[in-house]
Design goal:
Helix content: 25-40%
Structural class: alpha/beta
Strand order of the largest sheet: 16-15-14-13-7-12-11-8-17
Strand content: 15-25%
Number of strands: 17
Largest sheet: 9 strands, mixed
Bound molecules: 6-O-phosphono-beta-D-glucopyranose
Length: 503
């Protein structure tokens, strides 16, 4: 594997939750897998007053929650440094600049810097600007890359203004907008499944595909993120970014090469072809729901409106299902469905391709007699793998057909190391590869598609929000969205489905 160039990774928001839960574990994992460059400094930056030693101790504590090899931890900690800084105050950035110069000299690292904004979005304006004011965006003597976390805006106007602001100080090719879904191995495998197998691509179109179903279900609720989530909701939190990016990979045309712009151009074209949902049609195409109090097993689960940080009269959706079309040659007339929600019965993300039935039903019309839709399930998590459902003859007299599973589970490749999504994406950024990062124009296009839905909800309070008991598959009306077919009720195990699963 290509080695990353020596560099300093500056984490803004180093004492925050994301750094603790995702970035540090990902970096540590990369360290144990020897994926980090030998010359690497990770400089934590935040308001909290800490020394290098104090930061290392804090990180040691995060890491020691899981049993780890102490030698690995100690050698990892040697990469870590810390700089207290009031990041919202431009006048403090010369301090950061001198600290970076000092580290470059001390560790003989060239001026290659990656800035990771693991901060609240209200700092996305001031940090890039302040870095630029002291010349820390200048690539003359080494690369300067900026990673930012979602939300990339909260609506179309704010997304445009964020992009505009970022582009005042950094070029698009220096910007890495992280969407951790794209870092998932199984999401990347969509491209390999489609474009490395001769059998799928010829039938990957409206001639053979009846509809496509995308599910991202979570058993968790909003945990302690009520304050954020109540202003976001499932449409902004999951659909605008992760799930539309998935649609991009499922629906795109083959890229000419596997390179950042070639792939991202194709994703953009998919977003350009999404048939807009007019405000009048929102109620018909988009079902929103919110979980209500219920018993899951013996536990009494509280309603969303009773969660901390949530307005007791909140109309924020914790569930969303949407039916949409992609108006281009490949997908004309094929309905796509997305379903996502919190407090559903299983934690599952998957894409199901439902193929059309045979043109003539030779074996009769009974459900077990040959009119089945073949299904290809691309499982993102858990039990990552691929499942193909096909018809087989039931042994014995006559020609009765039953559905059987052909399944592959990633865990069968036990000797293969599956990097975490954050690990994979960080490594790509270290190597200057933005393929799996969202590009500004695609982010704006996705918002353009979502905006009429937000407007309709805001302008028309009569559009209902349905409740669903926590622990169920969302509001009952969601079945009406899929006129000609049925949602799959996925289970933890890829090959199982149905409403009654092992949890
Ligand atoms: C995040 C959302 O981006 O993705 C969360 O903000 C959600 O609300 C999470 O829980 C889902 O990611 P994953 O990897 O757990 O499926």
């Amino acid at each position: 594997m290509k080695q990353s160039d020596p560099h300093i990774l500056v984490i803004f928001g180093a004492s925050g939750d994301l750094t603790k839960r995702k970035l540090i574990p990902a970096l540590y994992e990369m360290h144990t897998q020897q994926l980090l460059p030998e010359k690497l400094a990770v400089l934590g930056v935040s308001r909290t007053e800490l020394t290098d030693f104090g930061f290392r101790e804090m990180v040691k504590e995060f890491l020691s929650v899981q049993p780890q090899n102490q030698e690995d931890i100690e050698s990892f900690l040697e990469h870590l440094y810390y700089q207290p800084l009031l990041t919202s105050d431009s006048s403090e950035y010369p301090i950061l600049k001198s600290r970076l110069e000092e580290l470059c000299n001390e560790l003989a690292i060239p001026e290659n810097f990656i800035y990771y904004l693991s901060t609240p979005p209200n700092l996305y304006q001031v940090i890039p600007q302040s870095l630029a004011e002291v010349g820390l965006n200048d690539s003359t003597n080494g690369f300067k890359r900026l990673i930012i976390e979602k939300p990339f805006g909260t609506d179309l106007a704010s997304a445009k203004s964020l992009n505009k602001n970022l582009l005042n100080y950094f070029n698009e090719n220096q910007l890495y907008r992280i969407d951790h879904y794209l870092g998932k191995e199984t999401v990347q495998n969509m491209l390999v499944t489609r474009f490395s197998n001769g059998i799928f691509e010829p039938i990957w179109n409206h001639n053979f595909i009846h509809h496509i179903e995308i599910t991202s279900a979570e058993t968790l609720g909003i945990e302690d993120r009520g304050g954020y989530y109540d202003h976001s909701g499932a449409l902004r939190d999951m659909v605008q970014n992760h799930l539309l990016q998935l649609v991009g990979l499922i629906a795109m045309e083959p890229p000419v090469v596997v390179e950042a712009d070639a792939i991202r151009n194709e994703v953009l074209k998919v977003f350009q072809s999404l048939r807009p949902i007019s405000q009048e049609k929102v109620a018909q195409h988009v079902i929103r729901g919110q979980y209500s109090q219920s018993h899951i097993g013996k536990e009494l689960v509280k309603a969303y409106r009773d969660e901390t940080g949530v307005d007791p009269l909140s109309r924020t959706e914790t569930f969303l299902a949407i039916k949409f079309f992609i108006d281009n040659f490949r997908w004309a007339g094929v309905p796509f469905y997305i379903r996502t929600g919190k407090k559903l019965p299983a934690r599952v993300a998957e894409v199901v391709i439902h193929f059309k039935t045979t043109p003539h039903h030779l074996f009769g019309d009974q459900p077990d007699s040959g009119t089945l839709n073949n299904q290809l399930v691309l499982r993102i998590q858990p039990d990552e793998g691929i499942l193909l459902k096909i018809g087989m003859k039931i042994p014995g007299a006559g020609f009765r057909v039953q559905t059987v599973n052909l399944d592959f589970h990633y865990n069968e490749l036990s000797d293969v190391y599956l990097p975490s999504a954050y690990g994979r994406l960080l490594l790509d950024c270290m190597q200057g590869d933005a393929t799996l990062y969202a590009r500004g124009d695609a982010v704006e296009k996705a918002w353009e598609y979502i905006q009429p839905i937000l407007n309709a909800w805001q302008n028309n309070p009569d559009i209902p929000i349905f409740s669903y008991p926590a622990g169920t598959w969302g509001p009952e009306v969601v079945d009406q969205l899929m006129e000609d077919g049925m949602w799959r009720y996925p289970c933890k195990n890829l090959a199982h489905d149905g409403e009654y699963c092992e949890l």
